[in-house]
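2024-03-11 09:14:02 INFO worker-7 job=invfold-0412 stage=load source=structure_tokens
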């Protein structure tokens, strides 16, 4: 029987991560100290010192280099974040009056989506009046992403990625679930490029202020492109947790995800 493991990435020690289903593995990034039952990226083949620039990509790199050997070909592995958790369905609107708990609506390992998928991404965010290229230029600066796309060595992929950036649909946050072989291929592709992007941004002194994590924002666009181009992805919705759910004080006494009616404001749906 195939197994499913989702690595829940965080840079904070949060009690709620110990209250999630067993298939979700708390994974602390950076050089902070985490509980002994958590994974962390300090040991092994690691680039944790780049975490403040590369964000969740340093965790993806660690799993690729140190943990992939623990999976068989029919297993599933994926990533979520301490604020963003996979849901068990794809929704077109928020469930304002749903009386169930958020916990009961988290992704289940027996979801039928695993029977006929190559990869799973978040429900795409749609930009109604701009392309991904326009949106990136407006937020992070003109020509940065164009110059980084030119660092891609494969001319065909460079062309296809440029086409994707001129669309308006993006699966955000570098969250995905896939098979080990596909994950291996993804990592070989993405890290060849992300290190070039980091060097470019660092040499141009762009990694300051709100742009300190430019490489991971670039990666977010490439990840969505890569899985849509190389695989036939299915999509699921997600819940973005607020401070009440993440509070260590609250989670010391209860698991707020299990409270009735906590699902009524989810899923999280972005359209711009």
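2024-03-11 09:14:09 INFO worker-7 stage=emit residues=272
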């Amino acid at each position: 029987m195939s197994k499913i493991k989702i690595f829940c990435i965080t840079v904070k020690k949060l009690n709620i991560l110990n209250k999630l289903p067993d298939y979700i593995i708390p994974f602390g990034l950076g050089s902070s100290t985490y509980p002994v039952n958590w994974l962390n990226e300090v040991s092994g083949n690691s680039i944790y010192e780049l975490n403040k620039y590369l964000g969740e990509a340093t965790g993806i790199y660690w799993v690729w280099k140190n943990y992939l050997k623990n999976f068989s070909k029919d297993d599933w592995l994926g990533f979520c974040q301490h604020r963003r958790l996979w849901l068990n369905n794809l929704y077109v609107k928020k469930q304002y009056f749903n009386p169930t708990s958020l916990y009961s609506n988290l992704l289940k390992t027996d979801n039928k989506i695993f029977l006929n998928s190559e990869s799973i991404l978040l429900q795409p965010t749609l930009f109604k009046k701009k392309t991904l290229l326009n949106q990136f230029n407006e937020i992070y600066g003109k020509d940065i992403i164009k110059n980084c796309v030119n660092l891609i060595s494969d001319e065909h992929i460079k062309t296809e990625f440029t086409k994707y950036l001129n669309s308006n649909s993006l699966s955000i946050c570098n969250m995905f679930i896939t098979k080990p072989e596909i994950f291996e291929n993804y990592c070989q592709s993405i890290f060849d490029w992300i290190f070039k992007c980091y060097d470019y941004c660092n040499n141009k002194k762009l990694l300051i202020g709100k742009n300190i994590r430019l490489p991971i924002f670039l990666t977010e666009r490439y990840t969505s492109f890569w899985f849509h181009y190389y695989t036939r992805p299915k999509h699921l919705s997600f819940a973005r947790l607020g401070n009440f759910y993440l509070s260590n004080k609250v989670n010391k006494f209860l698991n707020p995800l299990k409270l009735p009616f906590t699902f009524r404001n989810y899923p999280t749906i972005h359209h711009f």
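2024-03-11 09:14:09 INFO worker-7 stage=report msg="The longest strand covers residues 4-10."
2024-03-11 09:14:10 INFO worker-7 job finished
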